[in-house]
Amino acid sequence: MAKGWLKAIAANRDLHSAIRIVGLVDVNPEAARALAADFDIGDALIGSDLDAVLAETTPDILFDIVVPAARRNVVATGLRHGCHVLSEKPMAISLQAGRELIRLADEAGKLHAVVQNRRFISGVRRIRRFIESGAIGEVTGIHADFFIGAHFGGFREEMDNVLLLDMAIHTFDAARFIADKKPLAVYCHENNPRGSWYQHGAAATAIFELSDDVTFTYRGSWCAEGANTSWESEWRIVATRGTLLWDGAENFRAHKVAGSDGFLRELSPIEVPEPADPRETHGHASVIADFVAAIHTGQKPETASNDNINSLAMVFAAIESARTRQRVTI
Description:
This protein is of the alpha/beta class. The protein has 2 domains: 2-114, 3-Layer(aba) Sandwich (Rossmann fold); 131-279 and 310-329, Dihydrodipicolinate Reductase, domain 2 (2-Layer Sandwich), CATH 3.30.360. It has 10 helices and 14 strands. It has helices at 2-11, 13-18, 29-38, 50-57, 71-80, 95-108, 122-133, 162-179, 284-297, 305-324; strands spanning 23-25, 45-47, 61-64, 84-87, 112-114, 139-147, 183-191, 203-210, 214-221, 234-239, 242-246, 252-257, 267-269, 328-329. The strands form 3 sheets. Strands 13-12-11-10-6-9-8-7-14 form a 9-stranded mixed sheet, with helices on one face. It has a 3-stranded parallel sheet with strand order 3-4-5, with helices on both faces. Strands 1-2 form a two-stranded parallel sheet. Strand 4, helix 6 and strand 5 (112-114) form a beta-alpha-beta unit. Pfam families: GFO_IDH_MocA (PF01408), GFO_IDH_MocA_C3 (PF22725).
């Protein structure tokens, strides 16, 4: 993922001119040296001791791109050194740990935000703008399907609740953003299907209750071979006067009711407009740019941890529901 972040910075002219990488830290310094060579940042300090590298380089920002179990100590160390911190998702391995990071950032007077890169894509921004326009009325249901046979190898295949904790948060966060509603409760069933190459929890089905009587359903699997969806999921947004379908790529179909007679009402198609601001559609680069802008302006970044914890809460409530086989309030 560090390579993905650096690619995003290198490819964005504004970020490339605004950000200078002064240090790279890895438990394996050779990996950091290889990364420095790949991106021609040979003047960056390389080390395996985060404290020492931060003390010597005194950076403004720490990019926290570690496995979830290491996140708390890395963020706390960065804040202690006076850094603003932008973290990979998920923001923490528990809600308690997430609340602690919010507290530490508040005490330090620094920003802490989370890379929810998949809310910063064209499709998600288009849907949010479309819903806000009222073109199909008020949203009543959001439904997302995610089915991919992903062979990562490495730490994900050893994780508990791997789909819910490592991937579903993208879809949960996008649904929360699209609906602009508060998550209230969830019932979730999780399993590890026959043939799964993951240790635990490669598939899940969840029903979320959102505020204003909106329902969000999620069906997902990371060991579903044969008919992959988009990484962004396939979506159906149902509203009081129509429906929007999105395949997670470039295909949008929206129709609203155009007649008042008949068993099935006559429908008319509606165009789904482009995002209001194209700068918000470049994934990692857009999240990083939003974070840097927030530092300069003093405004809250869109994915600030004290907001993103609501998406994390959806994840842990789903995990708790799957464990207890009960509806869980959020």
